[in-house]
Amino acid sequence: MNHQYITIFFDGKCKLCNFWVKFVIKNDQKDIFRFCTLQTKGVKKFLKIDEITLDTIYVLDNKKIYTKYFASTFVMSKLNKFFLIPFSLNFIFPKLILNFFYDLVGRNRYKLFGQHNECMVPSDFIEEKFIKEL
Q1: CA 122 to chain centroid
Q2: Rounded distance between C-alpha atoms, residue 62 and residue 7, angstroms
Q3: Cα torsion for 65, 94, 100, 90, to the nearest 10°?
Q4: Where are the beta strands (DSSP E) in 21-134?
Q5: What would the pLDDT profile of 100-118 be if each residue is shown by its tens digit?
Q6: In the chain, % of residues over pLDDT 70
Q7: Is the dihedral of CA 129, 66, 97, 105 positive or negative?
Q8: Is residue 59 within 8 Å of residue 8, measured between CB atoms?
Q9: What is the pLDDT of residues 49-79, one digit of tens each?
Q10: Can you give the residue ranges of every domain in the chain?
Q11: Which of 20, 16, 44 is nearest to 33 (CA)?
């Protein structure tokens, strides 16, 4: 069976991003997510994006790329129906407003939460969920 995964590209040095990825892994009961750090060689070419920024996550689902607030709430909505509430805000409020708050945290995440010197090294238990080469 050819399984289509939803791939999350994230800043592997960001402590907040790593915490969030671990949360997603822990709650991914359907095993639908795979992960790749934005520091992985070839990400820009793979995503076909001119400029990669570490201030957001990129979510690739069925050849569509999502970023910022939409991407994070999209992922959360796949984990639990409760998270459909924040995801539904994408269709109520302008993207400009939702991304303002997302960007505010994104720009200050190292100051607020810190950063690792190196990207996350996944444990043996979750290693198969990580893409190491593109």
Answers
A1: 15
A2: 10
A3: -50
A4: 33-37, 58-61, 64-67
A5: 999 999 999 999 998 887 6
A6: 92
A7: positive
A8: yes
A9: 888 899 999 999 999 999 999 999 999 999 9
A10: 6-129
A11: 20
